[in-house]
Specification:
Elements (H helix, E strand, L loop, with lengths): L6 E6 L5 E7 L4 E7 L2 H4 L7 H23 L6 E9 L3 H17 L4 E5 H7 L12 E6 L4 E6 L5 E6 L5 H11 L7 H8 L24 H18 L4 H30 L3 E5 L6 H14 L2 E3 L11 H12 L16 H4 L7
Parallel strand pairs: 1-4, 4-5, 6-9, 9-10
Antiparallel strand pairs: 1-2, 2-3, 6-7, 7-8
The chain binds 5'-O-[(R)-(carboxyoxy)(hydroxy)phosphoryl]adenosine and zinc ion.
């Protein structure tokens, strides 16, 4: 039986943001709330799992309430609930999933658990030009850097992934060496605009055509060594030196990401490349992806900048596709801290 759902409530608490969205069946966004914990984790240089889950506990009900206020709706207007079940921080995931289950059970609503990466993959699908599969997807975030093939049944297959740090993690860790707060990706992106990207050349790893995997540990190491050299030369890293450093770093990471993504498109003879994840907010990655797409006859699909980083709109979008096919979970589904999207996509969940 197909579930009818004029409005869907979606929740993502996979990491450090409490995200809630309400979407209409046609994809219209009625509410989009993200309670960020960035400032709370900034002094630690990264997300502290225990703090993150406690913050979700104290914020989730307020975030849902605010979503209803923003949408001008009541809980009785909701006809289905979607929630991220994994991957992510286990304590954080539990808060969102338990809240979603309680909401669904209290109102006798269907519920569907969504894989966080499937959400990132669907973040661009609000755009009318979003392709029907098959397409290639590049998901680049703080926790993931991977290339997926999405077949016509929305079954995802990992074609390549990072062997060490994710691209966002590289931005964040190198940013920390420079004294920036976590997360540092946007700061480095903004400062790069003021610099010359030809002054400092960073290594682009895994250039070999034999693999679609990434590696950012060499880049991190060369950044550390360069920082030591620059500190010796200048005493501190600021002004033009800092801007040039950021620009060179951004250029290397973007080149590494796009080389493999376009290589995958050509190898699979696919004409559509879908980007997603926090790093897909990077301004150079976005312009370079489109520029190369034009040159190489591959249509590039970008999520709106505010839906690159974690949000619940993308979870709602992924859920809408599944709900329209009549898929739903029974209430006994579990959170999974570490699960590949390959194993859960393409197939209906338990019922
Ligand atoms: O998708 P996301 O919100 O969380 C995960 O699922 O990991 O991604 C967060 C990551 C962080 O590493 C952050 O530094 C990075 O996205 N990020 C950026 C930019 N905005 C966010 N990296 C580069 N340039 C940006 N403009
Ligand atoms: Zn994410």
């Amino acid at each position: 039986m197909t579930v009818r759902f004029p409005y869907i409530l979606a929740i993502d608490t996979s990491c450090d943001d409490s995200a809630v969205a309400i979407l209409k069946e046609d994809g219209h966004i009625a509410a989009d709330i993200v309670y960020s914990q960035n400032e709370i984790h900034a002094p630690y240089g990264g997300v502290v799992p225990e703090i993150s889950s406690r913050q979700h506990v104290s914020r989730i009900a307020r975030a849902v309430q605010e979503a209803f206020f923003q949408a001008g709706l009541q809980p009785r207007d909701i006809k289905a609930v979607a929630v991220t079940f994994g991957p992510g921080l286990i304590g954080s995931l539990l808060v969102g999933v338990q809240f979603a289950k309680g909401f669904a059970q209290g109102l006798s609503l269907p519920i569907i658990g969504i894989h966080h990466i499937e959400g990132h993959l669907m973040a661009a699908c609000g755009d009318a030009t979003f392709p029907s599969p098959p397409f290639i997807s590049l998901i680049v975030s703080g926790g993931h850097s991977a290339i997926y093939m999405c077949d016509k049944n929305y079954q995802f297959k990992t074609l390549g992934e990072t062997r060490d740090d994710a691209a966002g993690e590289a931005f964040d860790k190198i940013g920390r060496m420079l004294g920036f707060n976590y997360p540092a990706g946007k700061t480095i992106d903004d400062l790069s605009a003021l610099g010359d990207d030809n002054i400092y050349v960073f290594p682009v790893a895994m250039r070999s055509k034999a693999t679609l995997d990434y590696s950012f540990s060499g880049l991190k190491n060369s950044a550390r060594l360069l920082i030591q050299t620059l500190l010796k030369e200048h005493g501190e890293i600021k002004g033009k030196v800092l801007f040039d450093f950021c620009a060179g770093l951004r250029k290397a990471i973007v080149a590494a990401l796009l080389n493999k993504a376009f290589m995958a498109c050509h190898a699979q003879e696919i004409k559509h490349l879908v980007l997603g994840g926090g790093v897909s907010a990077n301004s150079l990655l976005r312009t370079e992806a489109v520029r190369r797409g034009d040159l190489e006859k591959i249509q590039v699909h970008l999520p709106p900048v505010n839906h690159c980083v974690d949000n619940a709109v993308m979870i709602a979008r992924a859920a809408l596709r599944r709900l329209k096919e009549g898929q739903q979970h029974t209430l006994d589904f579990n959170v999974i801290a570490n699960v590949s999207v390959d194993t859960v996509s393409g197939q209906p969940p338990n019922r």
